[in-house]
Write a structure and sequence with these properties.
The structure is a single chain. The chain is α+β, with helices and mostly antiparallel strands. It folds into two domains: about 130 residues, no CATH class; about 325 residues, Cytochrome p450. The chain is about 55% helix and about 10% strand. Strand 8 and strand 9 form a beta hairpin. It is globular and about 60 Å long. Bound molecules: protoporphyrin IX containing FE. Protoporphyrin IX containing FE binds next to helix 13 and helix 18. The site of protoporphyrin IX containing FE has 28 residues, from helix 13 and helix 18. GO terms for molecular function: heme binding; iron ion binding; monooxygenase activity; oxidoreductase activity, acting on paired donors, with incorporation or reduction of molecular oxygen. Its cofactor is heme. Belongs to the cytochrome P450 family. InterPro entries: CYP11_CYP27_families, Cyt_P450, Cyt_P450_CS, Cyt_P450_E_grp-I, Cyt_P450_sf.
Length: about 475
């Protein structure tokens, strides 16, 4: 899910120069200054879009063994069945240093090889199967109604309100509620530490090892937030364990014999992977509703037909294709995860190219999303592009699907996908059923995730 962090360029240039050259039939982009500028200015998506235009669907950099691809079928080769059995993804180097130097054990995001698969195969049925999600829906629906009460016609704090709802849904689903772990207090602490941690990771993107060695203020702030979030979750999970709670993913994991320590690290990584991505995605969908009043009207009409006067619930989500199309279309234009990554450990064939072990590959979501052959008028948000159309050529359908993968693809795809989708669709639908949403145009930036450059300005008016 996460992007490049090894930007300690001088050392890396020499160490990693060989491999990108080794893939001799892949064009080289050698204006490194432009790449560095894009990294520092949060516009890597623009850099890759332009570089792909110049060099085609695949190119390499002379540093970091880095290869970018922007072709749906190459992306499927990399992420799908011809990729690896235990694929590995990038994580920010600051997180790696923290885990290594402080001996902190971590969950799925950090794991590789058989250890990763052992944990992942235990979690898939608990997180992705329909039966598990049906059990989770009541918590999501309850929080949608709480969110409406909190909003009460006032959008000045809407991003905070949504952040709070997402955090609450995830804490309740993963840990459950216990008398020794009052959720409302925990939420405030998780919000402070989670946002601090993401801010810190961005600050430590360059030379994190050096920050660690001199214990810079940025490093100290970063580890304070990591330790804070771990401590809060530990408290909740231990309470769930002690009280032998029946509900929550943690309780299910205990039943399967997972150790207390493993459950702690799994849940911590769920929150790291889930809170900011889901909140940001919701904010972009609200932005798109506000920017496209005609789409908003049509979605409201769809919800009226399907739900009548009832609040949208988890069990109607298969019957609201326009709303689902809006989420897909918004993920195309403003992906919460701007690049999918793989670190290759064996030769992998993508298109005509064999990428050798040690290659770091990034799939450029934004470059594929603006391909006007697959998406005519690519900058227009058209949710109906995603509504099943049997007359559409199969190749086009496949290319469209492979160009927009908000949750990644293959065995390493997002484990929280169903929770995230259901939370987003239910929360946003409830807002649309009650409010007219307007939004000022916001600009997209690539930081740790795909965020608005400045805060998204949303206003809501009761219907
Ligand atoms: C709209 C919200 C979300 C988006 C866009 C998103 C996106 C992604 C993406 C793109 C990946 C990498 C997939 C790949 O490399 O193929 C990923 C991995 C992951 N996500 Fe999400 N995610 C979201 C919500 C969540 C939630 C709610 C959770 C909580 C359970 C979560 C937990 C994780 C974890 C633990 C991983 C690592 C999985 C592994 O390595 O096996 N995500 N996510």
């Amino acid at each position: 899910m996460f992007r490049i962090s090894r930007l300690n360029i001088p050392g890396m240039v020499e160490k990693n120069f060989y491999s990108a050259r080794f893939i001799s039939n892949v064009p080289m982009y050698d204006e490194l200054k432009k790449f560095q500028h894009a990294m520092m200015n949060n516009c890597l998506h623009v850099f890759t879009r332009e570089a792909h235009k110049e060099l085609g669907p695949i190119f390499k950099l002379p540093i970091m063994n880095l290869v970018f691809i922007a072709d749906p079928s190459m992306s499927s080769d990399l992420l799908g069945t011809s990729g690896e059995r235990y694929p590995k993804t990038f994580i920010p180097e600051s997180w790696e240093i923290h885990a290594r130097e402080y001996g902190v054990k971590r969950g799925l995001i950090f794991l590789a090889g058989e250890e990763w698969w052992e944990q992942r195969s235990r979690l898939n049925p608990l997180m992705l199967k329909s039966a598990a999600i049906t059990k989770m829906n009541p918590s999501i629906e309850k929080e949608a109604s709480e969110l409406l009460k909190r909003l009460d016609g006032d959008s000045s704090q809407i991003q905070k309100d949504v952040y709070r709802s997402v955090t609450k849904i995830l804490l309740e689903l993963f840990i459950g509620t216990s008398k020794d772990f009052p959720l409302d207090q925990a939420i405030e602490r998780v919000i402070i530490d989670n946002s601090g941690l993401f801010r810190g990771t961005t600050q430590l993107m360059f030379n994190p090892q050096e920050h660690f060695e001199r214990k810079s203020p940025e490093w100290m702030m970063f580890i304070g937030h990591v330790d804070g979030i771990l401590a809060t979750l530990k408290q909740g999970i231990r309470a769930s364990y002690k009280e032998k709670l029946e509900h929550g993913v943690a309780a299910e994991l205990f039943k399967l014999g997972t150790s207390l320590e493993d459950v702690e690290k799994i849940v911590c990584d769920f929150l790291l992977g889930g809170v900011d991505t889901t909140t940001t995605s919701i904010m972009w969908v609200l932005h798109e509703l506000g920017q496209n009043p005609d789409v908003q009207e049509r979605i409201r009409a769809e919800l009226k037909t399907v739900c009548g006067d009832n609040p949208c619930s988890g069990d109607v989500l298969e019957s609201i294709p326009l709303m689902k199309g809006l989420f897909r279309e918004t993920s195309r234009l403003y992906p919460a995860v701007p690049f999918l990554s793989r670190i290759i450990s064996k030769n992998v064939k993508v298109g005509e190219h064999i990428l050798p072990p040690g290659t770091n590959v990034m799939v450029s979501n934004s470059a594929m999303a603006f391909n006007s052959t697959n998406f005519p008028n690519p900058s227009v948000n058209k949710p109906e592009r995603w509504i099943r159309d049997n007359d559409m050529p199969k190749d086009l359908k496949n290319d469209m699907a492979a160009s927009v993968r908000p949750f990644g693809h293959g065995v390493r795809m997002c484990v929280g996908r169903r929770v995230a989708e259901n939370s987003l669709l239910v929360l946003v639908s409830n807002i649309v059923q009650n409010y007219q949403v307007s939004a000022e145009k916001a600009e997209y930036a690539t930081k740790m995730i795909g965020v608005p450059k400045d805060k998204i300005k949303i206003s809501i008016k009761p219907l």
